[in-house]
Prior knowledge:
By secondary structure, the chain is mainly alpha-helical. The protein folds into 2 domains: 18-134 and 256-335, no CATH class; 153-209, no CATH class. It has helices spanning 2-12, 24-35, 39-42, 44-50, 57-82, 88-92, 99-132, 211-223, 238-255, 259-269, 272-285, 290-298, 305-308, 318-323, 331-335, and strands at residues 153-158, 183-184, 200-205. The chain has a 3-stranded antiparallel β-sheet, with no helix packed on it. The two termini are 26 Å apart. The model is unreliable at 1-16 and 312-325 (pLDDT under 50).
Amino acid sequence: MDDAKNLESFGRTGEESRSRFSNRCEYMLTLVGYSVGFGNIWRFPYLAYANGGGAFLIPYFIALFTLGLPLFIMELGLGQMYQQGCLGVWHKMGLRKMQGVGIAATICTFSFCVYYIVILGWTVLYLGKTLGAVRSGVLPWSDEAEGFVCPQIELYLYGSVASEPMAINSLTGLYNASYASSFWCPTSNHREHAVAPQGYITKRVVPQSCPSQAAVRFWESEVLMKSSGMDDMGGIHWGLAAAFTIAWLAVYFSIFKGVTSSGKVVYFTATLPYFALTAFFIRAITLPNAEVGIRFFCGPRFLSLAGCFSLVSSCHTDLLFIGSWLWNFNCIRISWK
């Protein structure tokens, strides 16, 4: 009991004016928002697919229970005990030479924010384009957008089936799977200058529908505005600049009062990814041949596990900072909920 009182007096010394979370819900949502974000939508699926599919969950859970959760609890506990962020905690622990770890964590967080705000800017831009297309009902990155024409496709068919009307789908420009043995496909490295083998005929098709090509064209020409090379710097993308400004202002007004303001914002930001994941999941499983895609994505490839264990993940110690804003909560019990 005496040790608990001494610890409380130690943590509260000079910290009476420090803001606190209003309730446990805000603290819990802050941790959830830090742990689960839109990176789980676009980053984790890529890592899982590229490193063994369903087999990736083996090293993932090993890392989670041996590294992730122990560090998670330790950082929250240190932040709560010493009431400091990733810099000041080393000073209070009497390990001033270790403050370089806090500086490195701050630099990592700054770098993370710089590139993540770009993703938020893209999100704001797409949101604005979507709202602008409400009246017309046609998204600007769809193949139905005004002025977009599907690019021509070159297919190489064996001469005996070149005249077959069912060999190629005129809507999508894809070949009929039943005629697969009658098609020749050049390697990706020599596709532009491919010469069909003897007996094969080159057939040029302009598909009526090509949503993926339309999305790529919009991304490269309307969002990124890619130039011809480094010698062509291009100009300022005013729409993207406005989107970045909106994103930065949203971040500022979310944190400018510390946990007083951010504690209210997390009610939206921490729950939104779950609604988005649920919507994407329902949409994905209702698409044609969804079960084929699920088997292709989740099928375990155990030979890829060797590369999984060599992955290097960036670790942030911002949880020290989060833990420093609470005192009366049991951070360990809350962390395991």
